[in-house]
Amino acid sequence: MTIQVFGHKSPDTDSTGSPIAWAWYLSNIRGEDAKPVLLGEPNTEAAFMLERWGLEKPEIISDVEAGAPVVIVDTNNPAELPASVNKADIRGIVDHHKLVGGLETKGPIEIRVEPLACTATILYKMMGDDIAQAPKGVKGAMLSCILSDTLAFRSPTTTQEDKAIAHALAEELGVDVEGYAEEMFAAKSDVSAFSDAELLRMDSKEYEVDGTKLRVSVLETTTPAQILERKDSLKESMKSVAAEDGADEVLLFIVDILKEEATLIVPNERVKGIAEASFEKSVEGDTLLLPGVMSRKKQIMPVLKAA
Amino acid sequence: MTIQVFGHKSPDTDSTGSPIAWAWYLSNIRGEDAKPVLLGEPNTEAAFMLERWGLEKPEIISDVEAGAPVVIVDTNNPAELPASVNKADIRGIVDHHKLVGGLETKGPIEIRVEPLACTATILYKMMGDDIAQAPKGVKGAMLSCILSDTLAFRSPTTTQEDKAIAHALAEELGVDVEGYAEEMFAAKSDVSAFSDAELLRMDSKEYEVDGTKLRVSVLETTTPAQILERKDSLKESMKSVAAEDGADEVLLFIVDILKEEATLIVPNERVKGIAEASFEKSVEGDTLLLPGVMSRKKQIMPVLKAA
């Protein structure tokens, strides 16, 4: 049976590109039978990456069959994976997020988690010298993953290893890092095709803070004005998204990649309280500007307080 | 704060030697402040290893403090770890067992699990060229771990990597593998100092099979007669151990390392039923001989059925 390699349910560049890279390695270097699949429609940046490097869009699956061999990359959170994941035959996990518990395997398998900015950086290290045999498309996907997750090295999650490996890949591909990253970010910034509810769920994680259930959404963009001009309807949509998803509030952070700052939308008094308690600033109006804030993992989640 | 490195609550050779090896690496190569600790008294083989390589017995701790930095080796099972482990600051996990779920970390950390016979084999790979700097005691401990977990390469869990690394360590140390392994197994086989209840809990894992709670105990020995002559009192002790530990039955497998076979003690009709259903043999009397069976992980757990 073919091993299905996938990331999480909201395929961004890393969760689209890393399955492609790792399925190539499993098939062509380790001699296994593996293919990348997606758990949803790739976001606009991931779609740009596929197009740019001439990669086929992986098949989108909605669940996995019991006993089916799978390898999981870029998450270890059952909530971000197919409903039947623990009934599948999990053969490997490669990730760079905190361990949340909940995944179970039938026997000892290969698991690699490292505190790096990007899954593709870990995959590159695991591939060792075999990376030389990878086709351009695989290397291009891996470079795209690292530039995406590090916001071209601007994010505080960036490590020396992410940087060094991205530069090595770019050099071999003859790609200008800053120029290519700009193209990627422009693709990510074009969100005109998405509804408000889609925007709120596009890059979103559920967290419980002091008993309050939050949906913490991030939109990374080079053109924040394009999103902020939809602020009123986004605020309206937050109510129904929260209700449908069983959350108490939706926190939407619009990250300006170029200015290196985030704007939090503040739709009501409870979010105002959360924002003031978490970021120790007073909120005037319905937005809060957070200079230097770019990373949910490093700069938002660790400080969130429920007011 | 010093990082405490530990294995599971029933310290065998791997759960005693691997913390010593990894704490050496963290302190001397990575420049962190780490020390090995134990979660219980080492077994007789582990005690022999400490003595043979002039290693100090690590301090035994009963729990960990909230926020204390820890690194876990040789298990990822909260049931085999200190009660407060999820309140500690887990900094790393290195293991070769199936993922059971339940451990949680505050951020992304270093996790390495591989389907190899021994934790020390994984540690050796992680150390890379730096292993050359390890003192004899650390290398001796790592060799002991591999010989113990592979039963000197007789166990079906043994991989080519375990074997190659053990031979590399033995050669550098000038140790005759077979002769040294015999000494280790003789130390493990001397169980005269232990009560029946201690024997039943010495190398034991709890498993639930089809709703039946089993304590599956293994005693690896070169002198099975020494244990079998205590059979009647062991059978008696199984009742109280099961009752105290909340298990329905205790299954004791006496593994003859040299003959490469196991003897299961059958104290009652329910264990007889489990034995016959699991191993597809009929039981006469109060023991069942299982030729070739040496590994709980590979040959016992996967076939257990609740009758």
Automatic annotation (TrEMBL), chains A, B:
<dbReference type="InterPro" id="IPR001667">
    <property type="entry name" value="DDH_dom"/>
</dbReference>
<keyword id="KW-0378">Hydrolase</keyword>
<dbReference type="InterPro" id="IPR038222">
    <property type="entry name" value="DHHA2_dom_sf"/>
</dbReference>
<keyword id="KW-0479">Metal-binding</keyword>
<dbReference type="GO" id="GO:0004427">
    <property type="term" value="F:inorganic diphosphate phosphatase activity"/>
</dbReference>
<dbReference type="Pfam" id="PF02833">
    <property type="entry name" value="DHHA2"/>
</dbReference>
<dbReference type="Pfam" id="PF01368">
    <property type="entry name" value="DHH"/>
</dbReference>
<feature type="domain" description="DHHA2">
    <location>
        <begin position="181"/>
        <end position="307"/>
    </location>
</feature>
<protein>
    <recommendedName>
        <fullName>inorganic diphosphatase</fullName>
        <ecNumber>3.6.1.1</ecNumber>
    </recommendedName>
</protein>
<dbReference type="InterPro" id="IPR004097">
    <property type="entry name" value="DHHA2"/>
</dbReference>
<dbReference type="GO" id="GO:0005737">
    <property type="term" value="C:cytoplasm"/>
</dbReference>
<dbReference type="InterPro" id="IPR038763">
    <property type="entry name" value="DHH_sf"/>
</dbReference>
<keyword id="KW-0464">Manganese</keyword>
<dbReference type="GO" id="GO:0046872">
    <property type="term" value="F:metal ion binding"/>
</dbReference>
